[in-house]
## 1
Amino acid sequence: MSKKSKRGNSPGVGRRGFITAATVAGAAALAPPLAAAATPRAPDAVAKVAAPPTRVAEGTMSEVELAVRDLVIANRILAHENVVDAYGHVSIRHPLHPERYLLSWSRSPEQIEAGDIVEFTLGGEPAGGDQRPPYLERFIHGAIYAARPDVHAVVHAHSVEVLPFSISATKLRPVIHDGAFIGAEVPVWDIAEKFGHETDLLVSNMAQGRDLARRLGGNQMALMRGHGFVAAAASLYEVVRLAVYAPRNAHVLQAALLMGGKIKPLSKGEITARVEGPTLQPNTAAAQRAWAYWAQRAGVADLLPPRPTK
Ligand SMILES: [Zn+2]
């Protein structure tokens, strides 16, 4: 059975008009309710640096509904591209309330639908009193959003390709053009440095989350020793792109290291040109093409906005 046909059997998710009753019920569970969310608060310092929406808004959907939709797509993409499996998660900063973020309750990304998305405070508490069990490691997200006003989307995953670089002295560096998105520096956070040698390696409280965010600093990605990585970006599209290409970059680097000899990573100028150049900014056709491609592969193309007409 294809992924698409599996999705087609999911209650409450239909073609195009995917905001069905079940979806709206799920979105309504977010706090504050959508009626309140329709009146944005005065922008503050955080809102001023907000990235433009990842996708073109459709007239019938609120900003929160669009964010929830894109977060569902992001979950499915990361699952299909093997960035996450049963574990790992992706969040987005709340589009109207920057001191909160949207994240699924404790479901695997492959299975997430709009009704699974919960609104959290930066401290990791469900803002609307949702009773469903949250991810243990949700503290990663709030700690990074608190430390980084420029960040609007976060991924945490355990991709095997990057793990060797979390336990060895060999640095993970960008070596292919799409690897540029990981940035010039990828620091390694070792939980044992501050929390000793008796932890289970998981980020299970805010103190650990804040320590990880400190090690991430102003970078796009940090490895977590013997555990995985965090990625942070200005938009959902950018963080998904980073999370998809980081393992590929790590794979190429590992292969080159096995061949021996000197490695030639991207230069800082090449990284800047790739990341900040006009070609792949989130609202370009080239960027949207990747998002649509990944969504199609993940079986959620029916959640995408309609194609532009000539
Ligand atoms: Zn983890």
Note: Residues 72 and 248 are 23 Å apart (CA to CA).
## 2
Amino acid sequence: MADLTRTYDVLVIGGGNAALCAAISARRAGASVLVLEGAPKFYRGGNTRHTRNMRCAHDAATDILTGPYTEDEFFDDLMRVTGGQTDEELARFMIAQSKEILDWIVEQGVRWQPSLGGTLSLGRTNSFFLGGGRAMLNALYLTAEKLGVEIVYDAQVTDLDIADGMFLSAAVKHGGVVQDVRAGTLVAAAGGFEANIEWLKEYWGEAAENFLIRGTPYNCGTILKMLLDKGVQQVGDPTQCHAVAIDARAPKFDGGIITRLDCVVFGIVVNRDAARFYDEGEDIWPKRYAIWGRLVAAQPDQIAYIVFDSTVLTSFMPSLYPPISGNSIGDLAQQLGLDAAKLEHTVAEFNASVQPGTFDHTILDDCRTEGISPPKTHWARRIEIAPFYAYPVRPGITFTYLGTRVNRDSRMLMRDGRPSANMFAAGEIMAGNVLGRGYAAGIGMTIGSVFGRIAGKEAAKHARN
Ligand SMILES: Cc1cc2nc3c(=O)[nH]c(=O)nc-3n(C[C@H](O)[C@H](O)[C@H](O)COP(=O)(O)OP(=O)(O)OC[C@H]3O[C@@H](n4cnc5c(N)ncnc54)[C@H](O)[C@@H]3O)c2cc1C
């Protein structure tokens, strides 16, 4: 039983990957550590529960990765997906550190497995957690407990006492009682504000009502807001986030990966007006899947439909819900509530524009359209073999990028540029330092592991000096 009346060396707020990496690393550095997880034990681990893999640089193939993925290549990928909107020094530092994480995380009990196949194409770059994010978390929690990290669940931090950039105490609501918890240092690892619809509405307006939140309902950004309100420097654009197109029938929160749809490259995507609006074949799916949430968010009523035919039905992992089907395009349109004539026209126009080519979804193949706007630049094949299918999709918000600015020690910077005396941040809550916009699969966990490990070590060092 944790003793909330004692003063700990390190207080970690959050219970996901970043928090656990920080807690373990602080404890290994000799600090007494308390973890306050706002969720009940069964739901511990925030968005990390839903993860599958992590992107780390490596100079040679490993047991489970097919080849090298150099620091430079990782950095190039990051520059491409963010359009250069990253803190280059921190990004390069994170990428260099990610090499060690491949072994460090195994030392904490986590196991790897070879990449999943399908449209993911991640076998060279991303290591998959054996058993997925929940198994990964179980391993981290087990290690943390064995090391003597104290963990309290159902422990919502409701206030932070911060004076002149220095953390003094946190108010925690636990068992119906609010208590002040003191610690020498703070590691904030409490996620972004993606589950806070009211906050999202400040930037997205009423459209945010139509967003689905893919992960935990506990990431409401309460800690982020307190830190920003109490003088920590803000980083990132509040409208930027990781958002994918997910099954529109998914629950409002926590649908996870089983409502994600990876079939955009196999068909076309139309909006409420049965019109295409973006190149479905722009790039390899792991580099493009994360733009589709924003694209759908920009469409009328924040709804779109991925349309394909029976030839590709088994080419991708199925969603929780079956696709909607029709024996003709007109029939399908009726099932979807779309204008049948318009959808028939859109499909016919698309089919007429498809050029001959050799289909290969693992490379940027030569199957493309000509003479239509927007084009489909790869993987374009005619949609012509009944039955026809569609998935309705909505923006599925994964995590937000607005965050606290940090330096290489994961130490928060205050608005005047000074480093905080004793406050560190890791994971989603500071992801905006690296991710100005865009995303490449697996970087979320890299950010949490690298900066979590450093935050824990630095917090312990500070507390014990
Ligand atoms: C469906 C899905 C799939 C994903 N797949 C991948 C993937 O395969 N690879 C990848 O790299 N990334 C993936 N991500 C992103 C990844 O989940 C995050 O980048 C990563 O887990 C963030 O870790 P974190 O520790 O910062 O946050 P989280 O794991 O979300 O943890 C935040 C924690 O803070 C707690 N908390 C919040 N507020 C408070 C409070 N006031 N008091 C106390 N506790 C609080 C929450 O309960 C939670 O435990 C995925 C996300 C989703 C939703």
Note: The mean pLDDT is 95.
